[in-house]
Design brief:
Layout (H helix, E strand, L loop, with lengths): L2 H19 L1 E2 L5 E2 L1 H29 L12 H4 L4 H5 L1 H15 L3 H30 L5 H8 L1 H23 L8
Helix pairs in contact: 1-2, 2-5, 2-8, 5-6, 6-7
């Protein structure tokens, strides 16, 4: 990797961390973590963006307080909602491979982010159900989706749209160019 790739990867991980600390208190509070994941992929491209996501997760694993609520550590990643954070890797991987095979047109990128988010939701929900069952007792898929996915679908799609819009404007300014 070139030095610029390392710097962009680190900055992407920092962006995700900072956005994970921003909590919007609604009926169901949510963070800007997924917004940052989408921005990093759009701004840096699939390869550097996915590496940024992996670095972010590794920082969390070693105890850096990069997760929402300033949490960190392997215990936080192995907790009930850790599967959703680990699922960000699927968003990046799907984004990366769809760009390699189908090009980087906006419909391809948007479709890849939507598909990646769906896989992230599925992985995270399966993880949640497993950990919840061990700690509290069995839970049905419908209840898990009602708690962990349904309230976040519209906000996540809005964050995705905003990330695409902002990223395209930043790229038009010539500040940086995404690699594939």
């Amino acid at each position: 990797m070139k030095t610029t790739d390392l710097v962009y990867t680190a900055l992407g991980a920092v962006l995700i961390a900072v956005c994970s600390w921003v909590s919007i208190p609604l009926t169901v509070p949510f963070t800007l973590q997924t917004f940052a994941v989408f921005c990093v992929l759009e701004l840096l491209g699939g390869k550097r963006g996915t590496l940024s996501i992996i670095v972010y997760i590794l920082l969390a694993a070693i105890g850096a307080p990069v997760l929402s609520g300033f949490k960190g550590g392997i215990g936080a990643l192995l907790g009930m909602t850790g599967g959703y954070v680990l699922g960000f890797v699927f968003i990046g991987a799907i984004y990366r491979f769809s760009g390699m095979f189908f090009g980087n047109a906006l419909p391809v990128r948007a479709g890849a982010m939507i598909m990646g988010l769906a896989v992230c939701y599925a992985f995270g929900t399966a993880w949640f159900m497993t950990v919840y069952a061990r700690q509290t007792g069995p839970i049905g898929v419908g209840q898990a989706l009602l708690w962990c996915v349904i309230p976040f679908i519209i906000p996540d799609l809005l964050k995705m749209a905003l990330a695409v819009l902002l990223s395209s404007r930043i790229r038009k300014m010539g500040v940086l160019k995404a690699e594939s």
